[in-house]
């Protein structure tokens, strides 16, 4: 069974750390410059933490160019507390138009990058930002949701899949320096637009166990229905599905 979970797992698996709890926030200033804050939290006992020597400046710089485009590594730090490794990297950029999010490898065409950005400064003192997403990114997810009871994986396969994704979380948001005046985004709070906030274990379990959830979400496209939006809020997960999110601030 293909699913959105598998898609996000692939994204996570090819990052510099192979994340368990992965958080990316992009803050855009009024002039189009800004800061990316990337936080990953990995249990010390996890195989991902064993023998990992990638959290050094040279590796971080190389990964930054591949994944984010024209950014500079501003600072990075690693702390260990309560059995977890917490890594925080700040990347600065001069122009959001030269920034993208690409976790799919260097051979992927730019138009298939998960997210690209287009900034313009308006004559009336406001600023416009378009967040452009790959229109095919939900195909695997929708195929998974279309599975009926007869085509569901076996109990053993479902258990294995749940064990694989346990603890995997992904959060991506974008903030603006000044308050957002207008946007077509569905999930917003103050000056922040939430694009993805997913606990992969919970969403996988829902897709396996809840027939109504599968039925409601299987037709998800670039425009969420009120029922789909309500379901997301009920189960506390966020997926901004629009191919272009426009923000004026």
Number of domains: 1
Amino-to-carboxy terminus distance: 41 Å
Number of helices: 7
Q: What is the strand tally?
A: 13
Task: Tell me the β content.
Answer: 25-35%
Rg estimate, integer Å: 19 Å
What structural category do the secondary elements indicate?
alpha+beta
Mean pLDDT: 83
Summarize the structure.
This protein has 7 helices and 13 strands. The chain has helices spanning 4-13, 57-68, 139-145, 155-165, 200-209, 211-217, 226-235, and strands at residues 21-28, 34-43, 72-81, 84-93, 100-101, 115-121, 127-133, 169-176, 182-183, 188-189, 192-199, 238-239, 244-248. Helix 1 crosses helix 3 and helix 4 (155-165) runs antiparallel to helix 5.
Give the tags.
single chain; 249 residues; alpha+beta; 8-stranded mixed sheet; 5-stranded antiparallel sheet; 7 helices; 13 strands; 27% helix; globular; disordered N terminus
